[in-house]
Amino acid sequence: VGCIFVEMITGVPTFPGVRETYDQLDKIFKILGTPCEEDWEGVSQLPGYKPHKLGFYRGQKLGLSFPRLYDILEGESMASALLQLNPDNRIEAETALKHRYFSNLPKKLYELPDEVSIFSVGCIFVEMITGVPTFPGVRETYDQLDKIFKILGTPCEEDWEGVSQLPGYKPHKLGFYRGQKLGLSFPRLYDILEGESMASALLQLNPDNRIEAETALKHRYFSNLPKKLYELPDEVSIFSV
């Protein structure tokens, strides 16, 4: 998750190893530091730990390697919490959702049903890639909706049956816009393989058309991840793959 987080913000691979396992580890250790018994008890007993093949590096602030992390409030802090080599020091999923990185999100987002939360995930996904708010409404509800509809299109009965019956649907307060490709509004989505496709699947106004969480994890956006990642128990490090 930490690697994906950094890649979505920077638009480049986090640790681009190109030859073999130790080339990959070298890229990781140059940034995070070479682990040793002092900061990770038992690391020297791991099967792949071969000091003669590993350079010794001191860890550094992630923002030095990925300056764009500093463009987003608490971005560097969040990435550092996720990318801890020692699994015991790595932030847990539930704790990560309470990290200061998410402090500006409305508290109501955490109370929404799953099908609405997926839309929120889409907003966060786009924001992490672009570094700017997805739909920056600044005045009131209909200002926010106007920002959304200018990009996704104004919903109508033809493409969302029952939308006109929703309490907040007031045509006289809403402009009519045709939807457009997300990449036209957020060009950086095209910098990442399948980024625009993934964002579009998440940001569907009609909940019936919105991708489900489990299906999203099988989206082509994640196709370059090693298949073994999906088989790992929660407590096992991704660095074991």
Automatic annotation (TrEMBL):
Q: Name one GO cellular component term.
A: cytoplasm
Q: Which GO terms describe its molecular function?
A: ATP binding; cyclin-dependent protein serine/threonine kinase activity
Where does this protein come from, organism-wise? Graphocephala atropunctata
Keywords, ordered alphabetically: ATP-binding, Kinase, Nucleotide-binding, Serine/threonine-protein kinase, Transferase
**Know the name of this protein?**
Protein kinase domain-containing protein
Answer yes or no on keyword Nucleotide-binding.
yes
Family annotation (PANTHER family) = CELL DIVISION PROTEIN KINASE, ECDYSONE-INDUCED PROTEIN 63E, ISOFORM N
What PROSITE patterns would the database entry show?
PROTEIN_KINASE_DOM
Chain ranges of the Protein kinase domain? 1-102
Pfam families named among the record's database cross-references = Pkinase
